[in-house]
């Protein structure tokens, strides 16, 4: 497994990490599922250990993933290898009665600090390699809270590096990098969510800010498993987070990349290969729910040719 620099942090991350959202098992709030189905603990344990033995040293979790159970399972599986792995965790969202997704944001200083302390207990560690705000700030006050938190936890040795998870809010990511607020950024980027290549990627490279790519398979839409007639299981959060029109839009976009499928390459492998072809990216952290999915991800090779990359870019021009 190739290693890359996480910006200027001094952390060497495996170019392919493991997203741990699904691995905490089923959880729900007021009857609404908060993950992708129910991964049993023995399966999660096997996935964590297989990932590590395959050279993956980067594990991306959060206090909200299965309400903390993702962190617990990660710790239990790899506690003997703590100094050999890099743990990223996030804080700042909490359960609520909000609809359709029952989570709200609290980026206050004391909440972020106390949330990290609880995460450290679940992870059975004195520090995390990267601490991330799970949402970007929406005000100057929230940004001040985040920066104050970063300063405190670095001083106390509870995090080596700090950053902000921006999702699809690329403009905010550009602002944070320009203002030198972060060591790294976590963002959504994929074949169909490609706008960062225009401004954010060049800026991150110039400022030596690490880029962590979440959802490189666009929450499963780039696996080739779905069409317009598919429905997610009842215990899957995507039942609530995607309107019928957005679901259809994602399917239509993903279908345009089926030309990348070959006898020895699935669409998901091509999608990961595309992400890894971007030198600005430090690591990408696809999730999985089975050993088979993990092994398929691990076997990805950066083997897209120039003709394929040119065709990808031509398709993406309509969205850039």
Q: Oligomeric form of this entry?
A: single chain
- Radius of gyration over all CA atoms, rounded: 18 Å
Strand line-up in the sheet with most strands: 3-6-7-10-11-12-13-14
Q: Write down the overall geometry.
A: globular
Attribute tags:
globular, two-stranded antiparallel sheet, eight-stranded parallel beta sheet, single chain
Can you tell me about this structure?
A hairpin with a 6-residue loop joins strand 1 and strand 2. With 320 residues, the protein is of the alpha/beta class. Helix 1 runs parallel beside helix 10 (291-298). The longest helix is centred in the middle third of the chain and has 16 residues, at 140-155. An 8-stranded parallel β-sheet has the order 3-6-7-10-11-12-13-14. It has a two-stranded antiparallel ribbon with strand order 1-2. 36% of the residues lie in helices and 17% in strands. It contains 11 helices and 14 strands. It starts with a strand and ends with a helix.
